[in-house]
Amino acid sequence: MNSTQDDIEPTNRTDGSIDFNYFLPNDWFALYNFGFLSNTEQKIMLRVNNMIGMGKYLFHTNKTYLGAAAGLNLNTEEFLDEENTSNSSAEAFFGDSIIFTISEIWIYLHLSQRIPV
Predict the structure, then answer these.
(1) Which of 3, 23, 50, 63 reaches 20 to 30 Å from 30, CA-CA?
(2) Whole-angstrom Cα distance, residue 88 to residue 74?
(3) Extents of the domains making up the chain
(4) Mean pLDDT across 32-55
């Protein structure tokens, strides 16, 4: 996203992520997520997230899934300030997700909580 307005600095934001799920027996799954963000408005040159965890589908039919997952998220940040500040942190996460299918449409609802480690 790029935004230019009168009398203020232009804003540039770039973000993306890739998710990987490996399905295991008995409705268990391993998960990995890689995400990145760059945002001039928040003075973030680069934020990288590496999330790894395990989850289980608690309920599923051919049209509905209910699952829960937990794991660890490792964050690395570099800021656009005069000192070129950087920060690394770790967070534990847990969450659940519900997937509904209506004809060929999938509706995905996700709720998660992150706790600094």
Answers:
(1) 63
(2) 8
(3) 23-116
(4) 93
